[in-house]
Amino acid sequence: MSTDSNVLQLTISAKTTPKLSAAQRKFNALLKKIDKQRLTLQAWEAALPLYHQRWHEEFMPLKAQYAERQTALLSALDIASDRIKLAKADRQTLQAVICELATSLMDDTNREQMKALYNKHSHGDFDDDERQENLIIKEAMEQAYGIKLDEDFDFSSPEALAQHLQEHLMDEKKQQDERSPKPSTAREKRFEEQAKQASQSMREVYRKLVSALHPDRETDDAERQRKTVLMQRANQAYAERNLLALLELQLEAEHLDATALQNMSDERLLHYNHVLSEQYEELLMEISAIAFDFVRQFDVEPFAQVTLANSRKHVNRALKDLQHQLGDLEQLMFEIESPKGLKRWLKAERAAMEDDLLSAFGEFDFYDDPDFSDNRDFPENSSRFK
Fold first, then answer.
1. pLDDT category, 271, cuts 50, 70, 90?
2. How many domains does the structure of the chain reveal?
3. Chosen domain end from 124, 151, 171
């Protein structure tokens, strides 16, 4: 674990040197940047269990209620379709809404029931429509990415599809790298040599630690136990290409001091900086992945800049939005009890569908004056059941 004292001890001081070299300045800057991101990562890892607890205690019960109310809405709309006489446009809208709800609510426990409702109101067959839709997606994905998907590939799992694409792209890159010739430009050769030297420099640090910390050479039980723990940390750090952790271990083992860092050659520091730069980028990616999962779990706006500092605000907002959605759904159930209310809501839904279609194709005409006279009582219910 990083500490301020470790970073300060590893930082090359300018007190005894008139002017730090570029390599020394970059080394110091990378230490600070990595330490800052490690603290951020540690803070996220400490906060996530609390957010997971809130998810299970506060969000899951509300989401279960929302699913129950959506199921009740679906049943009410199905009954209304049999009992209430509707104009052609209203009936088509109602059928589309029922099919959309049945598809979104479908799971392993109610699949046949939802399929029956879908088939009833689509005048088709869900399995046939699903196969046709999957075929279209399959052909589009194969053409876009040059891949071959199995006939029985599970398109219901976005995660599985994303993983398959990632694996394919990685395999394709690997094959391309194998087919491509060796670096020919001076810059490419220099970069390849720097990477090689950087790995060698880190390996040298690790070997020195292994030699100094090998617990089998100790006769004192307490010292053997201490070195065993340090050795385990060194092995993990080397496996993760965590140069900063290895340097910190050198400090603990008293095999690195300010004088050694001060006298370290710029060539060696350049190699260190190469590894530290990679470590910094990996930390940024790890933190970004945590933030991405956080956004997806709590339904945060896709382009919101989520940080640990504002994460609580986003969670509270998501909880409030979910509570509002429940209230809106309850109000909707009340409104559609009357034929007049149902028809007004269907008109609002139809307008929302048309707006979505226009937005998708970028054909919205700002010179049209929309008529909100009949659906002004449904400003919230026209947002697709939210």
1. confident
2. 3
3. 124
Q: Domain boundary residue among 138, 156, 180?
A: 180
Which domain does 251 fall in, by range?
185-263
In a domain, 376, yes or no: no
Please state the pTM of the whole predicted model. 0.67
How high is the pLDDT of residue 168?
A: 72
Q: How confident is the model over 129-148, as pLDDT tens digits?
A: 988 888 887 788 777 767 77
What's the pLDDT score for residue 71? 96
Q: Give the pLDDT of residue 336.
A: 94
Question: Would you say residue 78 lies in a domain?
Answer: no
Domain assignment present for 364:
no
pLDDT score for 311? 94
Q: Is the pLDDT of residue 295 over 70?
A: yes
Is residue 71 included in any domain, yes or no? no
Residues 119 and 158 in one domain: no
Amino acid at the residue 305: Q
Asked whether the predicted pLDDT for residue 115 surpasses 70, the reply is yes
